[in-house]
Every structure is written in structure tokens, then in C-alpha cells.
């Protein structure tokens, strides 16, 4: 079974960390990851850019509205995510709109940075 | 993170909103500041015991307002009121807060608080000092050391600025759309001033004062959260991130300036670049170009070039032309000259900047660029004169050293066989 570990924290608090504090946290985690890396169990780690870089697409009647800013409701739950490689925001928005056509779900688009490649990609297969 | 560190972060984070609301109540900067200080003191006593409140800003507003009202009453009646015993119950006060502030409400509070600091009567340095004191909450000592002046001088500067502001009669009602847009533009300019004060220090030994850059970025991020659909605010944040990303490569081990072309690009901060590029991209979708967006787009072209020779100078030249249309300025034309030099050679670039001489005769960078172009054209004697002029106008030792380097190169080019390097 593949698992995603989703990281939550207060953006302001994390951004107020000094470089040393930030590095200390990452170094501590890295130590734990080492064993998973050696055993081929570690997938990629992804860092999202701060929420000010987010764009949200939500359904309003038959229309898909594109809004600046992150998804802010708490009624819905995070159910999954796609990772796509696009030239620019226009291309992602176009793709996302077509995907959610006729659906009432909300998509939040966040630029990401591959933080660690991990050792998993070769092993990822959709379970049949 | 220990208790006190957590509380400090929470207080800094809540400050603009709390100060903004307190200013709306009291319409007086000093009184609002006192109220906020008092609320912070009580927070430091109460929060470690009772735990942090769910909404620190609302807590601070409520406690600060009551404390200030108490002190007003005390002063007027000259009788003692119960101090802590009555107030210590306020830990849960936020639950039945009389006035829950919704987003749009505190948005205007914060904007007003920032706007008050950038009154057009205030000279740039006073705007920056006042904003750092009032919005960011830096101590006078911290601001004084950022400006490299003594504490007393900074205290006076801030007091003078406050007096000016209190005479200015800023409107306290909710602003209309046009007024809001005007305030937003003034605040954006003020934030960029803070950034530039840090990025290109205007005096003293240090060339980059990182805390000022970081603070400007923090304020721009706050502004963008309040106005998430404003492309110019996206542009401002992007511009500062893309410029600040280069900081680790801008000064070498000796404290000398390293030109963009010669910087070790692997030292650039990738996180900031990723975020900056994403914001430029996001802003462009609005098709409402503005000065920060165009400058950010220029910075983005540099950030995208893995090697200096990959830089799209053609596009940069076009963007500078666009910037000149938005904001005609000899400094922008001077910057465009560099792009023109890259695409059409030194002759064309020199022709572009010669007419600027009169207006930019006291500008260090003008003589630096002119010297470099003359050097390219082989007009060494004139180049030397321009560089000498630049040195005499340099504001920091790093700037002067940088020009001296160019002169050294000029000399070694002139007699290439004098010394084998």
C-alpha cells in the first residue's frame, strides 16, 4: 500500500524560522528517512509554495470559476491530488477545468517543488 | 519552539490586525500602541498558563481596548480600578467577543495602518522607519541599527513622523474602491522602499541588510493575503523574492559586490525563485500590467537563465520599454541601456544614456554604466573619468570597491603583458 503523509503547520510560524531552525528540522527528519531510503520505501517529497501562490477552481452552476488564493472551506476533505508538468498556470487551469467539467468538486492549484526525489518512482504501479 | 518563542511569533503575526483595529477605536497612534503593548504584556502573563487563545489578534484587540479604556477612566476619575484580578478572566473573553471582526473589516484596518505610515509628506526614510515601528513592531533600537544611526536620532525621526501623521487626518471610515486602490498603491511603494533599504543599503559598511528584506517580503505576503486578486501585489512579492533570491551570491567573501553576470547561480535561493516565478505567472493571467509586475517579469527572465548567456535580453529590452511607458524615468532608461548593449552593442546603449547625463549626474550607477560602455568602446580615458566620478558618489564601501575593480581591469587591459595573472 502506498501512503501519503500530508504535512500541516502554520505558514507564518514556519516562515519565521531561521535557516538554522529550518535545517535542524529537516536534518532530524532525514535521519529517520535514511532507513526507508535504503530499503527502497521512500517516495518523492514535495514542497508546496506558500498559499499566496495558490489558485482555486470552483463550480458555480455550470460555470467553473477561477479564483486567486487557496481553498479555504473546512466542510470538504482533501481526497487526493494530481501532479502534472505544465508550461504555465494557464495550461494547468485549462487542464483542470476540463477534468472537473460537470463536477461540483473544488480544485486548488499549487505550484510545487520536488524537495527530494526519493527512490520509489520506479516501483510505483497502479494496483490491478 | 518554546512557549516564549511561540508567543513572540503569535504577537508579531497578530500585530498588524490588532494595531489596525485599536487605531480605528482610538484614532491615535500613541494610544493604540500603548493599548497594544499592554495587551502583549498581559498575553505573556496569561498565555503560558491558560494556553494560547484560538484567535490571538481578537484577544489582543479586546484586552488592549479594555485596558486603554480603563486607563482613560482612571485618569479622568483619578481613582484606582481593579487591575489584574478583573482582567485575568479575559482568557476566555474571545468566546463572547462583542465585535467579531470579519475579513473585510480587518483588511481595511491593516491597510489603513500601513497607509498612515506612507503619508506623502513623509520623506522616504521616515516612512520606512515609521512602518517598521508601527506595523512591524521593531524596537527603536532595532530600527536604528538597521539604519546605522544612533537610537536617539531614530527616536526623534519616528516622533517627528508620528506628529506629521497625526496632523494629516487620515479618514477612518471604510474606504471606497478608488480610495482603497490608491492606498494599496502607496503601501506597495512603501513596502518596496523597506526592501530597497535592505537590498541596497544607502550608507555604512553593510551592503545588504537581510532583516529589512525579509520584513518587506513578510508585509507583502500579508498584503497579498488581504488582497489575493491584486496582480500588482503579486508582482511586488514576486519582484522582491526574485531579487532577494540572489542575495547569497551578491557579495563575495571580501564583501565586494558580484555582478549579476558573474554570480554563482547555484547559490541563488531556489525556494524563493520557484515562488517568485509562480507569482509572476499568476499575475500575468490578469492582463493588467503594472510597474511591479513588469519588473518582476524582468527579474524572472534572469532567474530562468541557468547561465548568463542564456538570458533573453531581447525580451528584457521590450519589458524595459513597457516599464518606461508605465513610469517614465531616467533610471529605467539607464537600466534599459544595459539590455540594449547586450542586443545591439555599446554604441547604441551609450547613445541612449548620453541625454540622461544632466538628470543623473549625481547617480553612482549612471557613471558606472557609462564607464563600462566607454570601456567596451575602447575609450579608456573617458571611461576612467566616469569611474572616478562613480567612486566619488558611491554610498557604501562595496559600491566603491566594485568600481575600483573595473578600473583595475581597465588598467590591466591597457597593458595586457605587464603582469601575467
UniProtKB/TrEMBL annotation, chain A:
Question: Which segments constitute the YCII-related domain?
Answer: 1-113
Q: This protein's superkingdom?
A: Bacteria
* Transmembrane stretches, start-end: none
Q: Which InterPro entries match?
A: Dimeric_a/b-barrel, YCII
Family statement drawn from the similarity comment of this UniProt entry: Belongs to the YciI family.
Listed name of the protein: DGPFAETKE domain containing protein
Supply the source organism for this entry: Chelativorans sp. (strain BNC1)
TrEMBL record, chain B:
Offer an example of a GO molecular function term for this protein: sigma factor activity
Q: Which residues form the RNA polymerase sigma factor 70 region 4 type domain?
A: 114-164
**Which residues does the UniProt record annotate as the domain DUF6596?**
183-284
Query: Which Pfam families is this protein grouped with?
Result: DUF6596, Sigma70_r2, Sigma70_r4_2
Q: Which SUPFAM superfamilies match?
A: Sigma2 domain of RNA polymerase sigma factors, Sigma3 and sigma4 domains of RNA polymerase sigma factors, TPR-like
Record GO biological process: DNA-templated transcription initiation
Task: Kindly list the residue ranges recorded as spanning the membrane.
Answer: none
**Which residue ranges does the record assign to the RNA polymerase sigma-70 region domain?**
15-77
Q: Which NCBIfam families match?
A: sigma70-ECF
Name of the protein in its database record: RNA polymerase, sigma subunit, ECF family
